[in-house]
Amino acid sequence: MALLELNGVRKGYPSPEGEAQTVLDVPSFSLEAGAELAIAGTSGCGKTTLLNIVAGLLSPDEGEVRFDGDVVSDFGEARRDAWRAKELGYVFQTFHLLGGYTALENVLLGMMFGPGADRGRAQALLERLGLGHRLSHRPSQLSIGQQQRVSLARALANQPRLVLADEPTGNLDPRFALEALEMLRSLCKDTGAALLCVSHDPRVLDAFEERVDFADVNVAMQREEERA
Asked: Which of 32, 12, 10 has its CA nearest to residue 20?
């Protein structure tokens, strides 16, 4: 059984003219436990919508999302929040760090929604990512690359079984982009987490042995290409 499965998942939004417009139509998609997969697609093609549906941040209009056999798209809000805190890590393109809290506190706060705050693990993660000397620094006192590493630590802190990465190097200087990606992949391998990464950056995509084009996953894109 696959860890993650999407079956007949569709999501649409109203067009500027008020007509229904399907942006996501995924007949079938799966990801095995511990696997690494990159999905290639241009900006604005629906990749983030896909990840947000997987994460339960959006609900599909049709179809189901299964995680380890459970239909998480049918969960109520409270159960979905608890599932996400325990099983899922999400690396956003914009880091969503809380400006009034230190690097260590940002990671600990993320842990509180799961099994509970573990100061030793949070500190060890930040030290491994080269931030042992920045534990008490707030985001405004950190470089962009350092903020990204805090977000990596937060995403992996609860030892999730699935990590989603949305353009994880999009805000990084090219010199540090691949370094951050390797850190993410290494952390996932250490914990056995599956990694699903979406990106339009060829450098990111080339780092993955397994990759697919988003148009092969999302048939709504195929229809748009046919109409064009």
From this structure: 12
